[in-house]
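Q: What would this chain look like folded?
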Amino acid sequence: MKYGFVFLFLVIAVIGITSFDVNAVSIGGISAESYILIEAQTGKIIASHNEYEMRPMASTTKIMTTLLLLESGNLEEEFKVDNEAIKVEGSSMGLCEDDIVTKMSLCYGMMLPSGNDAANQTAVLLAGDTENFAVMMNERASKIGLKNTNFVTPSGLHNDKHYSTAYDMALLAREALKNETFKEICGTQRVKTQFGNPPYERWLVNTNKLLYMYEYCVGVKTGFTDEAGRCLVSAAEKDGVSLICVTLKAPDDWNDHIKLYDYGFSVTKTESIDYDYSKLSVSVAGGNQSQVAVVPVDTPVYTKINGEKTDISSEVILDKFIYAPVKAGQIVGKINFYADNKLIFSTELISRENCEAVICKYKPSLFEEIIEFIKGLT
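A: My prediction, written as structure tokens:
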């Protein structure tokens, strides 16, 4: 909802006492030339090696291409493919000349079988050609904060000027996973979709074997070229903790990720964020009480790494006032929690109680009462 007036408390109410950065460790027995493991809520690095080294990232590029396509909207609208765009080497979702397809099918085609045809079609659809689409990709990358990434191709086919880092790819995955549709797609093992001329049903299977091998894996994307080697961006969730792992040029990527996740989950846990909501209320106009108490929709939590204590500040945004009647559960604002100036949790604030409207009856003046009395005598 849009709040008519934002009443802002920057409560430097600190929940922890001490704040320090987690010292990332290097894990033994990892085959990847570059890797990183981060905690998804805060983006803090848990383990890493050569995480800022620029390398080709192959088809993990399609995380960005898919995100841009999802953000363009109208996902179920059908259209005919560009016959030149789909003529591309490498992995394919199986698009043929004059096929009719939807954006949603292209998303599955990129994220599951890693279709280069789907990626090229996306570029032409959104930007007219791959060069203009690369501009879109790099603009979006800049907004996310990817400082050592340059996109040239929508698919990840090798180009000397197409590169990223393990750290940047982790940030990209973190951003993409905020999109619920993206998260659903990249975590799908196999899906039945329709395309063709006329469209007909066919199955697409995910190349990400970690979805089968590791019970906590929820996505994200594989990649391979001769130059890049085996690349893998993945995410996993366990006991309320969300982790993201990236390996670049990793001969044993599946086991690399499992080792890194096993370590990551052993040093992390979720804890609730303490906050005194008894001090929060919103003014009510026209009610039988002047204010109503508010409570959060969800219980705020954060992920603690290695038992660290983190400074957490809060920002409360409330309507200046609301009109009666007010029902318990009515949304009246939101509360954000930050660690190291980064948003780690946000939830809506709702009314904890009902407030009835006061019906004001009109009271006639003395003169009006005399007139009415006289009228009654006639």
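DSSP finds nine helices and 18 strands in the chain.
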